Amino acid sequence: MTKIIATSDTHGLHRDLDVPDGDIFLYAGDFSMLGELKILADFNEWLGQLPHKHKIMIAGNHDRCFENKNKDVARKLLTNATYLENTGCEVDGINIWGSPITSTLSFWAFAYTEESERYKVWDQMPENLDILLTHTPPNGILDNTVSDENVGDRLLNSYIAKNKPKYNIFGHIHESYGYKEGNFTKFYNVAAVNEVYLLQNPPVVINI
Question: Are 122 and 159 contacting, i.e. CB atoms less than 8 angstroms apart?
Fold first, then answer.
């Protein structure tokens, strides 16, 4: 059995997080507020201090340094985790594929507001994944905002139904932290902060 520890959306508060030991540490984006390189450097140092054998992460809509002119610098700074950007990896026999894209908020990073753009990304998703790591939730699944809107990506729903990952781990919508079981896929919103950016939610432990 492999012990997965998953979190996201720490927005610079990563050092205040109580992270359980485990085999694989997954991070579903938004380590920063504006993609500050100094925050990334500290986040990378913190990752290096965690005991997990494998650390895998994606960026989020706040993590602009992975999309703007600093993206090459950001990747070089991140030495203590495997970074996925519409790519995948296999660790301990577990297949993981990750994407940072979202379908709304065009002024933030990785905002693919046009459905045609998102088709090109989700089409790269392999079938029968163990873990799908996304920043955005699917629509209607742990994506409800304080204004009572469902803001997840509808197109992602169709690809999850088609490709059937065992787990979909995401963040982005802070106020919808939690778990929901689907017909085939288990869904986890692992956002660490709440809607006013206060650290509130512990990392999720998943035994696979």
Answer: yes
